[in-house]
Recover the amino acids of this structure.
């Protein structure tokens, strides 16, 4: 019996998500005002960073299963930032604090230095409706 190879690994998915986030950040940096599309883009970043964080846990669990504890912990430490930024961006969206978006983008950009975006390959459909979806997650006010 031959070995089964998973071609859709969490590392591959993480690379795709990072590329998508890099393109969104590039497009956001070109915007002159916060319109509905910009809000969708920021909300999409929240979902992307959450998915990256979940993938890190999946990868770390796989390393731990093989008794590579140090490697798993190193992975978690290196990729601690997506969860933090997901929470911060979510708070920004939910509180309508769009004035702090430029500072947040400045903090985010160093994590995308190694991703060169020469051609935009992601479509608007990738983030369309994300703002409404994120707002729908908010528990109702009492």
């Amino acid at each position: 019996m031959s070995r089964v190879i998973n071609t859709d690994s969490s590392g591959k998915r993480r690379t795709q998500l990072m590329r998508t986030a890099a393109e969104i950040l590039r497009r956001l940096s070109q915007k002159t005002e916060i319109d509905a599309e910009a809000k969708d883009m920021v909300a999409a970043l929240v979902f992307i960073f959450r998915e990256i964080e979940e993938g890190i846990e999946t990868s770390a669990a796989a390393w731990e299963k093989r008794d590579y504890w140090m490697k798993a912990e190193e992975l978690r430490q290196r990729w601690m930032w997506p969860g933090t930024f997901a929470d911060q961006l979510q708070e920004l969206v939910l509180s309508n604090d769009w004035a702090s978006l430029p500072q947040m983008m400045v903090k985010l950009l160093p994590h995308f230095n190694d991703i060169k975006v020469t051609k935009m390959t992601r479509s608007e459909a990738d983030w369309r409706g994300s703002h409404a979806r994120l707002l729908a997650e908010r528990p109702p006010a009492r």
